[in-house]
Task: structure prediction
Amino acid sequence: MQTQGSPGDTPFSDSGTPPSEPQLPVPPSPTKRPHSLTAHGDTRIDPWYWLRDKHDPAVIAHLESENAYTAQVMAKTTALQERLYAEIVARILETDLSVPVLDGPWYYYSRTVEGLQYPIHCRRPAPTGNNGRRVRPGPAPGFEDGGAPFVPPPPAAPPDDEAVILDENALAGTSEYFALGAFDVSPDHRLVAFSIDLNGDELYEMWVKDIVSDAVVDGPIRDTYYGTAWSTDGSVLFYTRTDDAMRPYQLWRHLLGTDPSDDALVYEESDQRFNLSVGMTKDESMVVVELESRTTTETWVVDAADPMNELRLVLPRREGIEHSVEHARGQFLILTNDGAADFRLVMAPVDDPDPSRWVEVLPHRPGTRLEGFEVFDDYLVILERVDACARMTVLPAVNRAVAPPWDIDAAVPLPAPEQVSTTWDSANPEMHSTFLRYEYSSLVTPRSLFDFDMSSGEQTFLKSQLVLGGYDPSLYATERIWTDSGGVQVPISIVYRRSTEFPAPCLLYGYGSYEASMDPVFSSVRLSLLDRGFVFAIAHVRGGGEMGRHWYEDGKLLFKKHTFEDFVACGRDLVNAGLTSPDRLVARGGSAGGLLMGAVANAAPELFAAIVAEVPFVDCLTTILDETLPLTVNEWEEWGNPVTDPDVYAYMKSYSPYDNVRDDQSYPRILATAGLNDPRVSYWEPAKWVARLREADPSNQVLLKVEMGAGHQGPSGRYDAWRDEAFVLAFILDALGLG
Result:
């Protein structure tokens, strides 16, 4: 194919002969090496199965050719990308300071410095009042007026009493990728355990640093995973490791000052459905070990003051019963779905937490999903979700001698002035505090931080996400609309500039898996679309958690197609309502949301002008059939087990994006992304999908952008992430002819 000249171009050069027209880049076409995959008497032929071997030089060469092709195609948007990147950065206060959090004798906070990719973690001594007690945690120094956003000191002049705990920029060095895993200060505030990943494979190297002397005193402990816990005196550190399938399954105990090769294996989980995690209770009295599958939980503890003791079982696993455990007042607080689809809260004696001894704190309320809680000495804060809105409620303690001591009838909901908004808890490490720190945001309201005095009901504004350049929220509107999907009402959260003319270009975002809720919160990056006349919409489809446990269960296993049907219904409703049109509608999703993108590309390609599928789980059947791949076995409770169940196999095959690309239909423009070191969605899934899409519809443009030194989360530094987002936005605008 050849490009056409722009209107007004002369058809001939000065020589009078037709000029040679530039050729469009030719997309890569990986060699076919047919591979048979047979299960339940059914055989699939995969011509690009060989792409899964990243140690094959031909694979790396192909991925590099994909990046080169994508760069060629997107070269025409270089100036646009630079404008978008400049817009994104111009809205952000690059040198900034988080609101300090009081924890013991210290204020902990982080700051960013213009030009540096990563945050710097710091602390300052907390002043005391006349009574000798630490000053309450808000407003913190620099926020006393409670109104104007705090402008931190320039990077050359940090506070005189500041101690830098960790500088992520120094840890990253010259590495192209950096991620901080553990960041865990010991209970006595002397030490910090931290871990780093320099390639995105989510296997971390652990170190221990003395905060006062600024010296590394222990490590490295290699191949650790997320999750740490300290003993009370800071002499013992617990951590986790993964098996070959990237399943955290081992708990290890390290005695500081000893060789990590002498560390003790405390627990190993043999059931491949279960992941192991470790943490501490809020009062730091117990180390908590949780074994969790997608549907079942088991919990063990050990006293933090006696870390060499054996683990003690709190609640054994019972199939289908989930729970989480906290400790307060010498009792266990247990959030559970035992007899409560949307969960309830109970308390039980520490010495005998059997369900027969449970006392109900908050009963099951069908339709109100109890998602979590925050416990204080005299208050209990409830995190709940109703009709796709996350809210918080404070319960005071009325009588410390009775169980439960909290007064449900005296519950105080935290303010949520906008209907389409989200409220969530922030850092609250102090058990004895009467102040609850929480955050609030909507699609038009930047993230705002508050202290709520639970004793008086007084609220103190601490800080709001500062948007430079004169952002005025009154120029934008947000609302919630509902669409019918096979008789089910699906919520859609939308935002747009009030001056927008309809039908408008629209970006529709979706996820819909693992009971994860896509909450309507503010993004300054999004303004680059809204100010160009876009509508941004979130489809709260089944499979997520926005509408309670039933919403999740109705979009998983053999009901997974509801997720895809809901998203298509939302797209059609936006068109039918006159908000957008198919030639202006773009879909976006990542990971399991990338599976959603692949499914709707097959089901309703005519509805979308373009699709962005980031690290997409598009070869789901092949992956879930392979028990040797990371995270496969414990995914069976989310997707089903196609290895043993022919019905699950047939169902997954019927929606697997890679297996259902059709040769008889045209596809939207598609941008797919991947990370070479991604342990969650292997790079070869989008690589194969892109090859299949090109073969099915050679006239369409399909791009693949592979991060050759990163994993599931993409670029790690904030400037790199902003530049990557500018690239995606440029693709969207170019696909709609708005570049």
User: Anything to note?
Assistant: Confidence is low (pLDDT under 50) at residues 1-21, 130-156. The two ends are 22 Å apart (CA to CA).
